[in-house]
Design brief:
Helix content: 40-55%
Strand order of the largest sheet: 1-2
Largest sheet: 2 strands, antiparallel
Number of strands: 4
Length: about 240
């Protein structure tokens, strides 16, 4: 059919074997090392993401052990930086546009006219991706972004509907299980014990270290919000 002639099988110079040309989206070993090195050496503000560098195995050329929120951070902020120097523009630009689409979609404030623009842009981006990747790449999950802009139009900003908080809470409940034959009883018993300890800790003196008065990890030694810092100055408004 003459589609993507550059990827057709070609005979070697001696005519004894055939070889499959590399696609424009494939990376060499050196390019993979650069790609994973960027992701491994990245630094985030405290609390923004987990330690993503532990999931990057540069020598093996693999990424595993990361959570769904880690994939969220990689897609929003890291992927477009990592691929810029190792892929040609015809591959990098559609992927950067895809990352930009999800980052704009997850903003805290989004205007209705921006949703219309995103809906048109994601259709163009997927068409560009179809010119790069094989048809087997485009499953139902790749088609899903077409409908995400309309979901924002119907349901509002994404952060009020995503499941990161619930997944984190379910992980906490999972850690309560000690008897795998009775997981419900283990969760109920541990939850009751935790709530009882928190209730009792509210009535202990301030000298006792509890969850309620424990110093935060990044304590800046400033008083709580609502209290003045420095000398107090009183003035009247006439």
């Amino acid at each position: 059919m003459g589609i993507r002639k550059k990827l057709h099988l070609k005979a070697t110079s001696d005519g004894k074997r055939t070889q499959l040309p590399k696609a424009c989206s494939s990376l060499t070993k050196k390019e993979k090392s650069i790609f994973y090195g960027v992701l491994k050496n990245v630094k985030f503000p405290d609390g923004m993401a987990s330690n993503i560098s532990r999931c990057m195995h540069v020598e093996e050329g693999k990424i595993f052990g990361y959570k769904s929120h880690d994939a969220h951070i990689i897609l929003h902020f890291l992927l477009q930086i990592a691929i810029r120097g190792v892929t040609p523009n015809q591959v990098a630009i559609p992927l950067i546009r895809l990352c930009s689409f999800f980052r704009c979609l997850c903003q805290k404030v989004i205007e209705p006219k921006s949703v219309d623009h995103l809906e048109v842009e994601i259709a163009e981006t997927l068409c560009q991706l179809e010119r790069i990747f094989p048809p087997s790449f485009f499953d139902i999950m790749v088609h899903l972004p077409i409908h995400l802009a309309n979901e924002v139009r119907l349901g509002g900003p994404v952060q009020f509907r995503w499941m990161y908080y619930m997944e984190r809470y379910l992980g906490e409940l999972k850690s309560f299980v000690r008897n795998k034959s009775r997981p419900e009883g283990s969760i109920a018993e541990a939850y009751l014990a935790k709530e009882s300890l928190i209730f009792c800790s509210r009535y202990l003196s301030s000298d006792v270290d509890t969850q309620m008065n424990r110093m935060t990890r990044n304590n800046c030694e400033f008083p709580n919000t609502g209290y003045f810092v420095g000398a107090r100055t009183l003035f009247s408004i006439s």
